[in-house]
From TrEMBL:
Keyword set, alphabetical order: ATP-binding, Cell membrane, Membrane, Nucleotide-binding, Transport
Matching InterPro entries: AAA+_ATPase, ABC_Ni/Peptide_Import, ABC_transporter-like_ATP-bd, Oligopep_ABC_C, P-loop_NTPase
Membrane topology: Peripheral membrane protein
Species in which this protein is naturally found: Streptosporangium canum
Family the entry assigns: Belongs to the ABC transporter superfamily.
GO terms assigned for molecular function: ATP binding; ATP hydrolysis activity
Annotated protein name in UniProt: Peptide/nickel transport system ATP-binding protein/oligopeptide transport system ATP-binding protein
Length: 364
């Protein structure tokens, strides 16, 4: 194998994807009927509160949902690979790493404690039939160096000799080193301080552009998304409730949940009291409503129809929102805007004041 970068970003089409986990109360859905396209060559950010199904979605892209979970419906079509939900055994193992690079959540704990990082790198290369192992090591050192580490020293180290943040960067290196063209990063920088986090994500963005990748980044942090992602998917209760170009979703959020998330960001400039926490809690596996809208218990715009009818998919410009109120606004005014507060300026205001983020945008 050559590690020479070639530009061939794959498109990914997630259709009707559902995953259930077996519990004492039976099989319960963690994500339901998700439709999401990853546009070739773009970075898609996935945000949402804890338990909304972000990691379950990421694992599904690799067909890596483990028991007690299983993919119960849908497909994940990746250009050049086909439907990964149908891949099994050796085919699947080869696809992971070589075609799909990934960092699982809590990757800082996933290194083998008994082997040096370098040994694990060579194992990875051999298991994917990399002929030029020296080239692979060179590539690894280069990536580690770009992330501010002494590559040779890190490759010579065991897990316990590295800090959480260093391990996280090793995880990112391992996701990129085989030159996969689809990269899935689940909370890749949580163990890092704000400044290092911004630096690492900038490097992820650089490598993404140099190599022509398609990338999915999961994070809790809307500021991180505003910084790195071209497109944004907002998850709630196992569904993608709003998706579209990042500037559009953050600049003109339509779904009441996206609006609530933006309102909840404390501003570091201006009046900190302007931030309003989203009341209530997100549903758990056992409390996601089977009918109607998953967000209705916390929604100020809730209507009778939200109790019983699944929200319609409403297309607005280049974005999509699943919401009865958005549809009603579009029918009434010919526009899909509903009363709102919050927007891109608040995200930029919140993060930009730290000097970490450099996003520029105008609120429409
Ligand atoms: N192995 C499992 N067994 C049972 N339920 C699970 C399992 N893994 C996840 N779940 C449930 O599935 C739902 C989605 O979990 P998931 O980890 O995908 O959420 P997440 O958005 O990644 O959350 P976080 O931000 O905390 O990482 C949650 O209700 C979670 O409790
Ligand atoms: S569908 Fe209804 S409950 Fe759900 S977000 Fe829209 S208005 Fe609120
Ligand atoms: Mg997660």
């Amino acid at each position: 194998m050559s590690v020479t970068p070639e530009k061939k970003a794959p498109g990914v089409r997630v259709s009707g994807l559902s995953v259930v986990y077996r519990t004492s109360a039976g099989e319960l859905p963690a994500i339901s009927g998700i439709d999401l396209d990853l546009v070739p060559g773009t970075i898609t950010g996935v945000v949402g509160e804890s338990g909304s199904g972000k990691s379950t979605l990421a694992l599904s892209l690799l067909n890596a949902v483990q028991p007690p979970g299983r993919i119960s419906a849908g497909s994940v079509e990746i250009d050049g690979l086909g439907d990964v939900v149908k891949l099994r055994g050796e085919e699947l193992r080869k696809a992971r790493g070589r075609h799909i690079g990934y960092v699982f959540q809590a990757a800082q704990n996933s290194l083998n404690p008994l082997k040096t990082v370098g040994k694990q790198l060579l194992d990875l290369g051999r298991s994917h039939d990399v002929a030029d192992l020296r080239g692979l090591v060179r590539e690894a050192k280069d990536l580690l160096g770009r992330m501010g580490m002494d590559g040779a020293r890190v490759l010579d180290s065991h897990q316990h000799e590295l800090s959480g943040g260093m391990r996280q960067r090793v995880g990112i290196m391992l996701a990129l080193v085989l030159n996969a063209h689809l990269v899935v990063l689940d909370e890749p920088t949580t163990a890092l301080d704000m400044i290092t986090q911004a630096t690492i994500l900038r490097i992820v963005r650089e490598v993404h552009e140099e190599r022509g990748l398609t990338t999915l980044v999961i994070t809790h942090d809307l500021g991180v998304v505003a910084e790195v992602a071209d497109r944004l998917a907002v998850m709630y209760g196992g569904q993608v409730v709003e998706q579209g170009p990042t500037m559009e979703v953050l600049g003109a959020p339509r779904h009441p949940y996206t609006q609530g998330l933006l309102r909840a960001i404390p501003r570091l400039v201006g009046d900190i009291d302007e931030a309003t926490a989203l009341p209530g809690r997100p549903p758990t596996l056992g409390t996601i409503p089977e009918r109607g809208c998953v967000f209705r218990d916390r929604c100020v715009l809730r209507m009778d129809v939200c109790e019983t009818e699944k929200p319609p998919v409403v297309s607005l410009g280049a974005s999509i929102a699943l919401c009865h109120a958005v549809e009603a606004a579009a029918d009434r005014d010919g526009r899909a805007d509903i009363p709102r507060a919050g927007g891109l300026q608040e995200v930029v205001g919140a993060q930009g004041a730290t000097g970490v983020h450099e996003v520029r945008g105008e609120q429409p």
